Amino acid sequence: MRVMISGGGTGGHIYPALALIERMQQRGLLDAVLYVGTKRGLESKIVPEQGIDFKTLEIQGFKRSMNISGFQTNLKTIRLFLHSVKEAKSMIKTFKPDIVVGTGGYVSGALLYAASRLKVPTLIHEQNSAAGVTNRFLARFVDKVAISFESVSDQFPMHKIVLTGNPRAQQVAGMLPNERLHEFGLKPDSPTVLVFGGSRGAPSINQAFIDAVPAFNTRDYQVLFVSGRVHFDDVQAQLKTMTVNDNLAVVPYISNMPEILPDLKAIVGRAGATSLAEITALGIPSILIPSPYVTNNHQTKNAESLVKDDAAILIPETQLTGAKLVQSLDSLLATPDSQQAMAKAAKKIGIPDAADRVIEVINSII
Ligand SMILES: CC(=O)N[C@H]1[C@@H](OP(=O)(O)OP(=O)(O)OC[C@H]2O[C@@H](n3ccc(=O)[nH]c3=O)[C@H](O)[C@@H]2O)O[C@H](CO)[C@@H](O)[C@@H]1O
């Protein structure tokens, strides 16, 4: 099968696409793949690193404010979109895909719209429990919509929806502890917690971690803290003036996350949908601090789908402090029973065969 695929901007859109490609390769279903992204999104680094053919379109998002500068930006957005659709059509005619798949982000809007105009089979994947802007726009043009949460079904045409879960879940589901923690200077046999703010990092979580360092220094658990690439220098500058003990590791980004996840006792993070797919695929206890800065507050809805089944703890960003972070982790790690119960509840929600389910949908379209 020849597959063109696009997911842009953040890891939450990119990793599901890569997981689907990997599964198709494993099953011997893939003859050729072309990934379409933007130069500026994380995909321009992550995708070529995987040895996957990568082409770019130039595109940007709409501004909500309609003052003069917002209006001018939106005019440019429309111009770029129309130009990208033209470019995408020419890429599609050259590559001749059997299916075009979109996993979200503006760039997938141009590619999938172009594919639908050319009558090439199309599928979009929605990771979140509230539909993204691009997928809402694309829904009426594409053949099928694969969803990850039942609760999003009323936001798409009923006859197009299939509940598949997130392909990234299948990629991590079978992972066993790898003992890779020593690569961060941590001990493989000490309980370890990951603290991170999604694929781009989150300043509020970074600040809470920095404020918590003096307390974390005295704990018998380890903290692997990921700042996000753009925030790393700033975090390092602040930590330079403090004592950071060797039970704490600070890095800008983790490239091999599936190999690290099984080594973790708990995760503190945002409530991005792909992170939640990983947490539920493996059954990892988590403390979620949903980003309040996302469309329709979808991260809170994502988080609530775990919290309602006691599969995670939610801390609203407004209540997040260093002290709250330490106290929440202390009490979770001090009670193995609640860790186990949370892990079990999380695993119950996971869809570990999600990539195969998406492949089934693709087969049904082509
Ligand atoms: C601010 C924003 O718009 N965030 C959205 C974005 O989040 P974001 O890109 O942060 O997405 P998620 O939290 O869903 O997924 C992050 C992905 O990046 C990986 N990872 C992260 C850090 C790292 O160092 N290494 C690494 O590999 C994680 O393992 C995971 O696979 O996409 C998600 C999925 O559509 C949405 O739910 C989020 O609301």
Structural class: alpha/beta
**How many H/I helical runs?**
14
- Alpha-carbon distance between the two ends: 10 Å
Whole-number tally of structural domains: 2
Spans of at least 5 consecutive residues with low confidence: none
Query: Which percent range fits the helix content?
Result: 40-55%
| Anisotropy-based shape | globular
CATH fold naming of the largest domain: Rossmann fold
Biggest sheet record: 7 strands, parallel
Q: What ligand species are in this complex?
A: uridine-diphosphate-N-acetylglucosamine
Beta-strand portion reads 5-15%
- In round numbers, the mean pLDDT is 96
Order of helices and strands: EHEHEHEHEHEEHEHEHEHEHEHEHHH
Q: What value does the Rg take, in angstroms?
A: 21 Å
Q: Quick one: how many beta strands?
A: 13
Q: In order across it, which strands form the biggest sheet?
A: 3-2-1-4-5-6-7
Query: CATH superfamily membership of the largest domain, which one?
Result: Glycogen Phosphorylase B
Structure characterization notes:
One of its GO terms (molecular function) is glycosyltransferase activity. Belongs to the glycosyltransferase 28 family. MurG subfamily. It catalyses: Mur2Ac(oyl-L-Ala-gamma-D-Glu-L-Lys-D-Ala-D-Ala)-di-trans,octa-cis-undecaprenyl diphosphate + UDP-N-acetyl-alpha-D-glucosamine = beta-D-GlcNAc-(1->4)-Mur2Ac(oyl-L-Ala-gamma-D-Glu-L-Lys-D-Ala-D-Ala)-di-trans,octa-cis-undecaprenyl diphosphate + UDP + H(+). Cell wall formation. Catalyzes the transfer of a GlcNAc subunit on undecaprenyl-pyrophosphoryl-MurNAc-pentapeptide (lipid intermediate I) to form undecaprenyl-pyrophosphoryl-MurNAc-(pentapeptide)GlcNAc (lipid intermediate II). UDP-N-acetyl-alpha-D-glucosamine binds at residues 10-12, 128, 199, 254, 299. The protein is α/β, with parallel strands linked by helices. It has 2 domains: 2-166 and 352-365, Glycogen Phosphorylase B (Rossmann fold); 173-349, 3-Layer(aba) Sandwich (Rossmann fold). 44% of the residues lie in helices and 15% in strands. The chain is built from 14 helices and 13 strands. The chain has helices at residues 11-26, 43-49, 68-95, 106-117, 133-138, 167-173, 203-216, 232-239, 257-260, 273-282, 298-307, 322-333, 336-349, 354-365, and strands at residues 2-6, 32-37, 53-56, 99-102, 122-126, 144-147, 161-163, 192-196, 222-226, 248-251, 266-269, 286-288, 313-314. The chain has a 7-stranded parallel beta sheet with strand order 3-2-1-4-5-6-7, sandwiched between helices. A 6-stranded parallel beta sheet has the order 10-9-8-11-12-13, with helices on both faces. Strand 2, helix 2 (43-49) and strand 3 form a beta-alpha-beta unit. Helix 1 packs across helix 6 (167-173) and helix 7 (203-216) packs across helix 12. It is globular, with a radius of gyration of 21 Å. The mean pLDDT is 96. Uridine-diphosphate-N-acetylglucosamine binds at residues 10-13, 15, 104, 127-128, 168, 196, 198-200, 226, 253-254, 257, 270, 272-275, 278, 291, 294, 298-299, 302. Uridine-diphosphate-N-acetylglucosamine is lined by residues 10-13, 15, 104, 127-128, 168, 196, 198-200, 226, 253-254, 257, 270, 272-275, 278, 291, 294, 298-299, 302.
